[in-house]
Amino acid sequence: MARSDAPTRLTDRKRAAIVDAAVAEFRAAGFEATSMDRIAATAGVSKRTVYNHFPSKEALFVHIVDDLMARGSDEHATPYRADAPLHDQLLELVQRKLHLLHEPDFADLARVAIVASLHSPDLARQLMALLGQREHAMTTWVRAAAADGRLKAHDPAFAAQQLESLVKGAAFWPQIAMGQPPLTAAQRKAVAESAVAMFLAHYG
């Protein structure tokens, strides 16, 4: 039994090594300058092994972005609770979002994705398709709170997008597009509290 499981475990370890190597290479060199050869060398596997797991560099990059997006779309991480104050729940959700936005991998790969999409319409289409397939945890939460009658949001997806914009306008786009430094813990706290207050003032 152990013998038959070994190849699967080895395959999983190699796949994880490839993904980790790709993240490092994309962050360091960008999408265009990163090659499957470099990824294979960094992962310590053959180029053929890389292609056995991922048919192209684009497919590998999309897999990485999809994994990052999954961290922000897990509705089970911060589910809506009918018996808890809206403010406290939403503040927790926004703080989780801010934590994700400040992860080095997320910020660096977001820059890579934006630049790569400008040069590759096909990659841009694949990334947009991913966005369409996932419902963010924030949207899920707003939809549930509206269905429970505790939010006046006739279009929960639009309301959640407005909340996302409040957060990203201070804690994502200035850092990604204009090279501003990441927010301090105190600044993130202020952004979260003000965004939640503004959202609930309108929809609460």
Q: What is the terminal separation in angstroms?
A: 57 Å
Order of helices and strands: HHHHHHHHHHH
Approximate strand percentage: under 5%
Total of helices: 11
CATH hierarchy, class of the largest domain: Mainly Alpha
Described by strand count, sense and barrel closure, the largest sheet is: none
Spans of 5+ residues with little confidence (pLDDT < 50)?
A: 1-7
In one word, what is the shape?
A: elongated
How helix-rich are the residues, as a percent range? over 70%
State the fourth-level CATH superfamily of the largest domain.
Tetracycline Repressor, domain 2
Structural class: mainly alpha
Tally of separate domains: 2
In the CATH classification, which architecture of the largest domain applies? Orthogonal Bundle
Rg, nearest Å: 20 Å
Q: What is the number of beta strands?
A: 0
Average pLDDT over all residues: 87
Could you tell me the CATH topology label of the largest domain. Tetracycline Repressor, domain 2
Organism: Luteimonas salinisoli
GO molecular function: DNA-binding transcription factor activity; transcription cis-regulatory region binding
Protein name: TetR/AcrR family transcriptional regulator
Domain HTH tetR-type: 12-72
Structure notes:
The protein has 204 residues and is mostly helical. The chain has 2 domains: 1-55, Arc Repressor Mutant, subunit A, CATH 1.10.10; 58-203, Orthogonal Bundle (Tetracycline Repressor, domain 2). Helices cover 78% and strands 0% of the residues. The chain is built from 11 helices and no strands. It starts with a helix and ends with a helix. Residues 1-7 have low confidence and may be disordered. Pfam families: TetR_C_7, TetR_N.
